[in-house]
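Quick one - inputs below.
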Amino acid sequence: MTHGHGSVREKPEILMTAMNKHNLDRLVADNCLKLFADYKLEIHAGKPEKTLSAEQFLLCGIMGFTSRQMRGALVLATTREPLERTNPAAVNPSHRDWICELANQLLGRVKNQMLSRGVEIFASTPIALRGEHLSPILQQRLVAELFTADGGVVCVWMDCEFDEGFELPESGVFEAVPVSVPEGETVLF
Amino acid sequence: MPLSGPGETRMMKRVLVVDDSATVRAQVRAALGIDEFDLVEAADGTEGAETIGRMTDLAAVICDVNMPRMNGIQMLEAVKKDPKHTALPIVMLTTEGQHELVQRAKAAGAKGWIVKPFKPDLLLAAIRKITAA
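Output:
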C-alpha cells in the first residue's frame, strides 16, 4: 500500500482545523451569551420554534480580524427585538451603529481571551449589512451558533483560516494572562 | 450653565465623550444624566483633540480606543503633550483590556480605564470622583 505525499499529512491537519474551529466556536458562543446577559437580555442556545427566513434578520455586524496564526471574520446577526432591547436608552436608535458596536464588543471579548491562549488578534473596523436575503458561504462547514431570546433570535459565527500546524488551545495556557481589566470593570489610576 | 437647587447655585461640569459609535455616546449621555453634566461629543480622536484644544472648561474626557482617523491612545498622548492639559482627567472606555495598552495609557497620563460594556452606575461614580473639586 502506498501513501501519496499529502495523505499522511492531510488528515491530522483536517482534524486540527476542526478542533481549532470547535474551540473557537465555543469561545465565541460563550462570550455571546455573556455579552447579551450584560445588556440584561437572556439568550439561550437553540433554534427558535418557528423557522426563520433570512428576511427576519434585521442586520449583520461584521468584524474582520487577523493574527499571526489565524485570520477571518466574526458575523453577528439579530432580529429587531434583541437589538432594541439591548439598547433601551437610545432616543433615535441607529440599528446599524448598534450592531457594529455589539460585534465590536463581542470580538473584543474574544480577543482579550485569545491572549491567554497565545493569540493576539488585530480587528478591522466593523461594517453592517442588512440581513435581507444574505447567507454565508464559508470555507469550512457552517457552524452558526443560534440563540433565542424573548421575541427574537441572535446568530453568530466565525469564519476562520488557521495556519498549517497551528493548534488553538482549548483554554488559556499562559499563567500570566496579559489582560488587566475585565469586561465591565472600572479602574482609576 | 448654572445649576440651581434649593439654597444652592452651582455650575454643570462639562464632559467630552469621544467615541465613533453614536449609540455609545448616547448611552454615556444617559448614564451621566442631564442634570449634573453637560455632555459634548466627538466622533474620533482628531475631532476629540480639536475639541479639547478649543474648550477651556472641560472637567473630564471619556475616550474610546479604536476609532478611525486618530485612535484614543494617540489622542491621549497628543493631548497630554500640551502642558495646558496635564490636569485634564481622561478615562478610556473601550473593548480593549490588554495590559500593555492599559499601561501605555497610564504612562501617557490617563486617569482610568473602563472595559465595555460599561455599567452606568460605575461610570457615573467614576466621573463624579475624577471631577470632584
